Amino acid sequence: MKKLVNKATVLALSLLPASVMAYTAPPVEIKDPNSTDVKMILNSVIEWILVLVGGIAVLFLVWGGIQYVTSAGNKDKAELAKKTITYAVIGIIIIVLAEVIVNIATGLPTNVGITN
């Protein structure tokens, strides 16, 4: 049974980079090479940070699942795994909400008619 769990863990971890790297951030479009829009650069930096933090949160989610599967009936290890999974899910929710808030905040001036 332990060999099966080890093989499943190795398989899951080998597929993880492909799933994390499947997300591609939107490309940064610079209209004029001599002028840079601060809002555009800031949005790009925020998007990359959110992608990085989201990848880390997914790794913690997977790690919590591995801890739970390998707890082997030990209640303390199972509780630690449940906490890891709970905090990872809360982190993912916060990251998604942060993305929504950033999109609303950066899109608000153009929605109300204020132009650059």
In brief:
By secondary structure, this protein is mostly helical. Helix content is 76%, strand content 0%. The chain contains 3 helices and no strands.
The helicity comes to over 70%
Distance between the termini: 63 Å
Structural class call reads: mainly alpha
Task: Return the average pLDDT rounded to an integer.
Answer: 77
Largest sheet: none
Radius of gyration using CA atoms only: 20 Å
Number of helices: 3
Beta percentage is under 5%
In sequence order, what are the helices and strands, one letter per element?
HHH
Shape: elongated
> Spans of 5+ residues with little confidence (pLDDT < 50)?
none
Label this structure with key terms.
mainly alpha, 3 helices, elongated
Description:
- The protein has a domain at 50-104.
- It is built from 3 helices and no strands.
- The chain has 116 residues and is mainly α.
- It is elongated, with a radius of gyration of 20 Å.
- The longest helix has 37 residues, at 75-111.
